[in-house]
């Protein structure tokens, strides 16, 4: 896929969008895929399947750089290897559902013709961002009151076989439970184009019970796996425009550097608070788009 599908204005906007997403990635330390797909589709008018396909492909470059820059040991590969198959299954299920929605074309609603794929993806994004944004603000509020959230909820599910993870205080975890969790993460990655970092980091800390440092390392490895799997899946379904991806990478490289510099001036609690409001703000943008599509 090349220039014929996108205008030069859209590609120029993609450079700016990539810069904004890269800045936020450097500022908050997570991938900006949650913002990338809505920006490309809602603001620039890029078809939803191309926006979803560009997400993991664009993340693959920075994810590889982060992976090589960190000292990832064998212990940090244990959980990613356990859930790799579940991630793969979820990614391909999600990508196939997106392809089915794309092939379905448009549906009639309230006298309008609406792309089914766009309706499905944006609706899921809205739900995800509202939940994660509210959780982020709630977590900051509890932290201010010195009432930390209990960790390791997922360890209470006792379904054999089990595995022992590093920094787990000798407690083991159910392999089937984390595998099904991986299927869910992979499914969302394949369907809506997020690399999973937005979900993985808080999940590994609060659900699995890993330390923050160990959770970050595991998230980097898993995000790389998900991005690679999603890129292959979306390339198979012809959802990747390389010119669009290169435009995003160009802006993202510059933006990430500026975001990293800014993050040094802000405290962790302040960053989490702003991040929560950013998620809810993006959810409002998506809600307005859906309301325009469905009600007007």
Q: Quote the distance from N terminus to C terminus.
A: 33 Å
Number of helices: 10
Write down the oligomeric state.
Answer: single chain
> What are the secondary-structure elements, in order, as H or E?
HHHHEEHEEHHHHH
Alpha-carbon Rg, integer: 19 Å
In percent, how helical is the residue content?
Answer: over 70%
Low-confidence stretches: none
What is this structure, in a nutshell?
The chain is mostly helical and 296 residues long. The protein has one domain (29-295). The protein is 73% helix and 5% strand.
Structure description:
This protein is mainly alpha-helical. The chain has one domain. Helices cover 73% and strands 5% of the residues. It has ten helices and four strands; from the N terminus they run ααααββαββααααα. It has helices at 8-28, 33-43, 48-69, 78-104, 116-144, 175-192, 197-208, 212-236, 242-263, 268-295, and strands at residues 106-109, 112-115, 162-164, 172-174. The chain has a two-stranded antiparallel sheet with strand order 1-2. It has a two-stranded antiparallel ribbon with strand order 3-4. Helix 2 packs antiparallel against helix 3 and helix 5 runs antiparallel to helix 10. It is globular.
Question: Key features?
Answer:
73% helix; mainly alpha
How are the elements arranged and paired?
Blueprint: H1 8-28, H2 33-43, H3 48-69, H4 78-104, E1 106-109, E2 112-115, H5 116-144, E3 162-164, E4 172-174, H6 175-192, H7 197-208, H8 212-236, H9 242-263, H10 268-295
Antiparallel strand pairs: 1-2, 3-4
């Amino acid at each position: 896929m090349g220039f014929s599908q996108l205008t030069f204005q859209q590609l120029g906007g993609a450079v700016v969008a990539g810069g904004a997403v890269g800045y936020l990635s450097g500022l908050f330390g997570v991938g900006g895929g949650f913002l990338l797909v809505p920006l490309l589709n809602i603001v620039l008018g890029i078809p939803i399947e191309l926006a979803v396909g560009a997400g993991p492909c664009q993340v693959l470059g920075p994810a590889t750089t982060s992976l090589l820059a960190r000292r990832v040991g064998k212990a940090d590969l244990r959980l990613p290897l356990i859930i790799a198959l579940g991630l793969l299954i979820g990614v391909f299920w999600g990508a196939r559902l997106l392809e089915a929605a794309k092939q379905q074309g448009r549906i009639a609603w309230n006298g309008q013709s609406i792309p089914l794929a766009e309706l499905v993806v944006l609706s899921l994004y809205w739900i995800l961002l509202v939940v994660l944004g509210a959780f982020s603000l709630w977590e900051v509020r509890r932290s201010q009151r010195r009432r930390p959230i209990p960790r390791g909820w997922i360890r209470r599910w006792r379904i054999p076989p089990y595995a022992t993870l590093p920094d787990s205080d000798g407690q083991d975890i159910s392999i089937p439970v984390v595998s099904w969790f991986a299927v869910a993460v992979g499914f969302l990655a394949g369907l809506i184009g997020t690399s999973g970092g937005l979900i993985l980091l808080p999940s590994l800390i609060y659900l699995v019970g890993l330390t923050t440092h160990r959770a970050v390392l595991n998230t980097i490895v898993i995000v790389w796996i998900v991005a690679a799997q999603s890129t292959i899946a979306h390339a198979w379904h012809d959802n990747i425009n390389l010119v669009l991806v290169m435009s995003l990478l160009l802006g993202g490289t510059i933006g990430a550097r500026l975001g990293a510099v800014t993050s040094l001036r802000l405290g962790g609690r302040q960053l989490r608070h702003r991040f929560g409001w950013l998620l809810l703000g993006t959810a409002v943008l998506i809600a307005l788009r859906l309301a325009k599509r469905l009600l007007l």
